[in-house]
Amino acid sequence: MSYRTQVFSMLPWVGGVNTSIDASLIGKNQLTVAKNVIFDTRGSRRQRPAINYDFDDASSSTSSLLGISDYWFGSSNGTKTQYVVGVSENFSVYQYIPTTGARTTLSLSSTSTQWTAAISSVSFETFNNKLIWAADGTDNKVMVWSGSGSYSNLSNAPEGSIVRQHLGRLWMNDKNNKDRLHYSETFDETVWNGLGDSGAIDIGIGDGDPDGITAIFPSFKGDLFVAKRTKLYRIKGYTPGFFEVELVSSGIGCVSHNSIALIDQDDMFFVSERGVHSMRATASFGDFEAKYLSADIQKTFNDNFVKSRLKLCQAAYIPNINSYVLAVTDSDFSSTINKALWAYNIELNAWYLFAPNIDCESLAPVVNSNKKIFYVGSSTNRLGQGLVDSENDTSESGVSSAILFNVATGFIFPSDNPYVVCGFKKVGLVFNPTSGYNLTIRFQIDNQEEQIFTLTGGSSEVLGTSFILGSSILQPTSVMEPAILSVDGYGRSFKLTIEQSATDKNIELQGFVVEYEQQGPAQTSGILT
């Protein structure tokens, strides 16, 4: 009996990482590996932009930069001034010029009290044209800075570790009364403790939560959500006499105030001890686990994300890459500091490992040149700039290192039947080439030895000079066309891995096709040429 070849096509190829299901059972569109990757606006995959750790003009030290904030404030002539402000583990406060990285150490007012207790996290809020920040640590006062001169203790404020504005008031937890939420007088951050129309609300006293208030969310559809470690509450109402507390979830809370990111005006993402969540879904469905955003990477979340440091994870929503970016301690790279940037593409509902083995103790979105990028604070007290247009990361000492793109599918059964044996003939990679690329392609049939190919090319390939027959592509850089490689072998499934193997620019990867011959009458036909 004769057989006709068939083509398995994965176009568009927009699935993200799925570590929660066996590699032979995940969706054909999904990946087992997606490192140093970003999803283009068209859904294609390409090498991520760079991170520059030599961005600031400071020297490295042994203290971590635990918190950073984009601070804009207005002056009397109607102009706006921008600084990035950072707070270090050693209590130092820095002002950075966001375009140059020039750093100035700010001084504490002589009439204010400096922190003395060790800190591990910092919370920022801009209110009444001032930057206000709080930190953990017993007796550490809330601080305020107006954009010039020294910073000082926030007058009359309770001892809180997290701050947020809502309804024209500043809201704050209480380090000494773990269930209490304070709010200031309207438009005045210096009036508290029942004076004026300030006051406090006790949230879920005796609800069995072990930590008390751990996070205050941005205003969302007129309400204020407040989380404990295992509980989520909503505060309704617009004036103190009508504030009403409602329990939203008795099982899902928020472990890190800094993991919260407002997604435009439609949603908020946050991290609980059980996973990553959408506020819109949680408020509608409560504890319903199927609504977890982290479902596809739940095994990684459970096994790799260091639970003792989840409270120190930090996140940002970056509209320019349409992604929620999460700085977390991943045991594959470190167990003591945040050293991985995981990201979730909101449009495609796809997870990817934006940057493995990257020092990211703190993370914040910053507007730079009219676009929002992110900055990271390192464990060596340095400020790094993300989303830099480069193929190389830059270390604190100015050394460049290649960003090596790496994606891998699961084991795909092209006939949708794990009992059908196929004869594999060719694999085609569909991409937009750049000015130069150098890739290693690995094609594995079942558990057999990988078939390995090197793919180089781009507009620099010259026929008769640098063009290599069988691996180089002779084509204009603007053309999207498959690169065809011959493979050989019989099996039930295949796995495709694509790795960048040199410092050349990477490709914009759209998808792939595989030609195979099914054992049995073919239903469709097609031959790659």
Layout of SSEs?
Layout: E1 5-10, E2 31-35, E3 37-39, E4 45-47, E5 50-52, E6 65-74, E7 80-88, E8 93-96, E9 103-106, E10 122-127, E11 130-135, E12 143-145, E13 152-153, E14 163-166, E15 169-173, E16 180-183, E17 199-202, E18 213-216, E19 224-228, E20 232-236, E21 244-249, E22 261-263, E23 267-272, E24 275-278, H1 279-285, H2 298-303, E25 314-318, E26 323-328, E27 340-345, E28 350-356, E29 362-368, E30 371-377, E31 383-388, E32 392-394, E33 400-402, E34 406-409, E35 422-432, E36 437-445, E37 451-457, E38 481-491, E39 494-500, E40 508-518
Q: Would you mind describing this structure in some detail?
A:
The structure is a single chain. The protein has two helices and 40 strands. With 529 residues, it is mainly β. It folds into two domains: 5-46 and 406-518, Jelly Rolls; 50-154 and 255-402, Methylamine Dehydrogenase, Chain H, CATH 2.130.10. Strands 2-34-39-36-37 form a five-stranded antiparallel β-sheet, with no helix packed on it. A hairpin with a 3-residue loop joins strand 19 (224-228) and strand 20. It is globular, with a radius of gyration of 26 Å. It starts with a strand and ends in an 11-residue tail after the last strand. Mean pLDDT is 91; it is low at 460-465, 473-478 and 521-525.
